[in-house]
Fold this sequence. Notes:
This protein is of the alpha+beta class. The protein folds into 3 domains: about 160 residues, Chemotaxis protein chec (3-Layer(aba) Sandwich); about 140 residues, no CATH class; about 40 residues, no CATH class. It contains 7 helices and 15 strands. The longest helix has 27 residues.
Amino acid sequence: MVNQVINSIDYKELYAQYNWFANNYPQVVQASSDEFFLKGLQFILIGISKNINTLMDKEAYFVTKVRIDKLHDMFFRTSEKAVGIILDRALGKPNSRFNLNKLTDLEAKIITSFNDYMFNSMVKFLSPAPPELKRSNFDVVHLTFLVKDITTNEVAKFIITLPDELLKPDVVTSQKDKFDYGDFSTSIIDVAIKVGSTRFKLIDIKNIDVDDIVVFDNSNTKRMVLKFKDYEKDINLNPNLGLVIPVDNDGGSEEMTDNTNLWDSIEVEMDAQFDTVKITLGELKNIEEGLVVDLTSIYDNKVTLSVENKPIARGELVIVNDRYGVKIDEVIAKTPKKDSPAEDALPVAGQETQDDFSDENMDIDETQIPQENAEGGENSDEDEFDYSDFELEDEDI
């Protein structure tokens, strides 16, 4: 026997089911009250929820649990004030204020009998439990009512909790679209547009500078990717020839290799993405249909370069041969270059004591100051490059 797994309810279903609850339960609850107590109390449905605790803090409730079958129960929760309103109608108004903690056996019997009477009227809306269903944490539906004494206008809360598994509500379905997407074609939304990506060495990221051009190998001048929340879609574009610049893209210089170490030689994935771009729903519809679109306005936006969602630099979009590139005009994080190795700061063997205060050694001390104050300096946040900023995968090493 396969056990059925019950998942959380989609609230869109509840919205579609609302009319079924509103057209059935209030009438049954009201009829039960009129028959049990005679007319005088009004029950008004004010809310329907699933799997949410609808009880108000610091408010006491009288709870009646009625067994439906061996797996399911129905609960009636009557607030302290609602109990007082109901008992006033049944027994007459007392001289003292009602206190739920001092409820008598007779009063408790009246409330319990009323809930049982109401249950018998509502059970017709319940379906038998599936035979293969094994009990777990069932979804429940809460129907919240206001109980009103039509004479005194006092109101209080009354809640009925039903097992969702036994409910088979009718669902409101739309017969046809009332509007066409074209009716909102000029409405504007904010989207992100990804230009491309490339593999980049950490040493190159450390030394990236203004006016550098980064070319993205995984890019196409006729295509970008639109991102809206969890939705992604390729955009077919007519390339903007005004972005083409003459660049000798022969693979770049290797002058950095002498200064690299294990970490510097590691490659990471760098992405290029436009900052938030505004497009119309009409343009989005054309994109979804795979049409070639003209998004000239996006080229006025800055492109952000990022590694592991950490911004590295910003710049303007350019076209280099058949690939997109970015001409850097702002570096967000940059490491200062060291002009001399650390060994130059070591004292020379055999020097006399007075040489420790010579001009030469004073110069060496000055070069050490930035290293000693790196953590506390004003520009440390901007200049410090930390490999721990990036989570490296095995394939990167």
